[in-house]
Write a structure and sequence with these properties.
The complex is a heterodimer.
Chain A lengths: L1 H21 L18 E5 L6 H6 L3 E15 L7 E16 L7 E7 L1 E3 L2 E5 L10 E8 L5 E3 L5 E5 L2 E4 L12 H7 L6 E2 H11 L21
Parallel strand pairs in A: 1-6, 4-8
Antiparallel strand pairs in A: 2-3, 2-7, 3-4, 5-6, 7-8, 7-9, 9-10, 10-11
Chain B lengths: L6 E7 L29 E8 L7 H16 L5 E5 L6 E3 L10 E5 L10 E6 L9 H15 L31 H10 L2
Parallel strand pairs in B: 2-4, 2-6
Antiparallel strand pairs in B: 1-2, 1-3, 5-6
Classes of the chains: A alpha+beta, B alpha/beta.
């Protein structure tokens, strides 16, 4: 029953698209954008931007680690809602916080976006990790399979003894005030590593404050 | 049986004459502008939600996206959004997770073997059920804005002056495109 309905849906879509393609208009590039040609752009949206202190307090796992391996793949390949994901194995070098007591040696972190067949879907806030890079990561559990970067911004690149939010080489052409916003919310960036670690340690609460447990929800009846 | 069906809003752009702006509008002087070009100018927006989405939330999502489509359609006469018939919702087995964000949009990502172009949005079903109708409407308007090639604004002073500020309180102070967004659309699509 699924396949015929899906096909019908695609046929409807294709016919509508055909109409759309025949009447498209002109559009124009912003004079301000002269960045590299990229294969896709990912933007993320929040209701609440947690300040740095909340980000640390609400994350059960904060580590320093090195990216050992990355694998990018398409979830639901061929479906209309296919999405590229990157899964990175991180070798842990230091643990600053481990509320859940998982004591991990390596972890997997998932990110939306990444290179697929040489075409990169660039996640503006949280670009795919690259092998060999070192980070301090403020993490949240996702679905039991992989961790996620807290609010997509709990990632701090280590380079030459200094710590940079996102990545030292972050392309600021599309920044549009982002770094200023982070600084206003107490996010350290471009600071010595020891200063950064001291800030995390000073923010940790004596009693753990993990994120709320999974809500007791069942799969919708739509989704048989 | 409906898990693979999609809530699809179709964007069609018709060439009409509109006033030409000299440059992309900004909200505050530290910004580089709202406009980029990551959409092809026409295409389809797919909206999906997670595996655990609450069936009760589906009418709320649908209404939010319909309102957003209508609001953006009113910006220029040649911007027209249509909801696919029958209205559907995509099922997503890659959860964003409770520690992630409310919505994500991917635009202009076209692989060699891909058969369509356009943008896709995922709603975080760990967060959306608890959000207000007004917030979901702002979220839909914001993600639609990305699909129209508008970038995030990150100046807190822009919270209520553009639908493209990257964050919003719940309840929100705006739920649709503003005059600034209209100017940005008029710059991009002439
Ligand atoms: Zn956004």
């Amino acid at each position: 029953m699924e396949e015929p309905m899906r096909k019908a849906s695609l046929i409807t879509l294709a016919s509508i698209l055909t109409i759309g393609l025949t009447v498209h208009g002109q559009s124009r590039t912003s004079q301000n954008y002269d960045g590299p040609k990229i294969g896709g752009t990912i933007t993320e949206t929040w209701a609440d931007l947690e300040d740095f202190s909340a980000l640390v307090k609400n994350s059960p796992l904060i580590i320093k680690g090195k990216v050992l391996k990355t694998q990018s793949r398409i979830e639901r390949k061929g479906a209309a809602n296919e999405w590229p994901f990157t899964y990175s194995d991180i070798e842990i070098k230091e643990v600053y916080k481990d509320t859940l007591g998982t004591n991990p040696r390596t972890i997997t972190v998932s990110q939306i976006g990444g290179p697929i067949d040489g075409i990169v879907a660039v996640n503006q806030r949280n670009p795919a990790f690259e092998i060999g890079d070192e980070y301090i990561l403020i993490l949240r559990p996702n679905d039991g399979k992989a961790w996620v970067v807290a609010q997509s911004i709990g990632r701090f690149h280590l380079d030459n003894g200094r710590v940079y939010q996102k990545h030292k080489s972050a392309n600021d052409k599309l920044d549009n005030g982002w770094n200023a916003l982070l600084k206003a919310n107490g996010y350290p960036t471009d600071v010595p590593e020891q200063e950064f670690v001291s800030k995390i340690e000073s923010l940790e609460l004596p009693t753990p404050n993990p994120i709320e447990p999974e809500p007791n929800r069942q799969k919708s009846q739509w989704l048989k | 049986m409906v898990k693979f069906l999609g809530l699809m809003a179709l964007l069609m752009i018709f060439a009409n004459a509109v006033p030409i702006l000299a440059q992309c509008p900004i909200c505050q002087t530290s910004e580089t502008g709202l406009c980029v070009l990551w959409s092809p100018g026409y295409g389809t927006i797919y909206v999906s939600t997670g595996e655990y989405f609450d069936g009760l939330s589906w009418p709320r999502y649908r209404q939010a996206w319909a309102n957003a489509g209508n609001n953006w359609s009113a910006v220029q006469s040649h911007l027209q959004f249509y909801e696919a018939y029958p209205p559907q919702i995509l099922w997503d087995n890659a959860r964003l997770g409770p520690g992630a964000n409310d919505g994500v949009t991917l635009c202009n990502w076209t692989l060699p073997d891909s058969w369509y172009t356009g943008c896709r949005t995922t709603i975080n079903d760990d967060l959306a059920p608890a959000r207000s109708d007004q917030f979901l409407q702002w979220l839909a308007a914001h993600e639609f804005g990305h699909s129209l090639s508008l970038n995030d604004s990150n100046n807190p002073g822009c919270l209520c002056t553009t639908a493209m500020y990257g964050f919003m309180t719940d309840p929100p102070c705006i739920t649709g495109p503003t005059g600034l967004d209209v100017n940005a659309i008029n710059f991009l699509y002439q």
